[in-house]
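Last lecture ended with a question: if I hand you only a sequence, what can you say about the shape of the protein? Today we answer it with a concrete record. The protein is NUDIX hydrolase. Below, first the input exactly as provided, then the predicted structure, then a couple of comments.
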Amino acid sequence: MSVWTEARSAARELTDAAVRTAYRGAYSLAMAYWFVRRPSTGGVFVGVWHGRRVLLLQNSYKRLFSMPGGGAHPGESHLETGLRELHEEVGLTLSASQLRTALDVVHYEEYKRDHVYFLEVDLDTEPALTIDRREVVWAAFLDVDAALQLPVASPIRDYLTEAARRRAAPAPSS
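The predicted structure:
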């Protein structure tokens, strides 16, 4: 590896660390705002499935495991939000016709009332994932039962529990 390549790599790692720190700071400020204001918010998560394996990720600013998702931009539909977040967070580009509505729930966490919509997609092959190592620091497909053993936010646990029930292996016939 050349000195120039090593220097660029070191600069990128330093920049990534600074951006992760900024994300943690911004999240802390958001939590303080939510504590004071107790707002109603809304968002979208996308369950990406390959058989009984679901895509989970770890954000740099949260302790809990999550799924691709986030808040809607002004004028953006739930479907558009889900497609955008999939591309931004894990590099997946899907068509709107591939996603379907799975669940919507209201939860009271992080000092706010959060209306969360879940979309989902079943993929025939496990896709390659691209994460930025800034907002998203880890992503992988896990068996849904293993995913339910991890610390996940309540709305995600509700979705995974319901999805696991729907995806239960059929009983063997006798």
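Comments.
1. The beta strands are 40-50, 53-59, 65-66, 69-70, 100-109, 112-122, 136-143.
2. The two ends are 61 Å apart (CA to CA).
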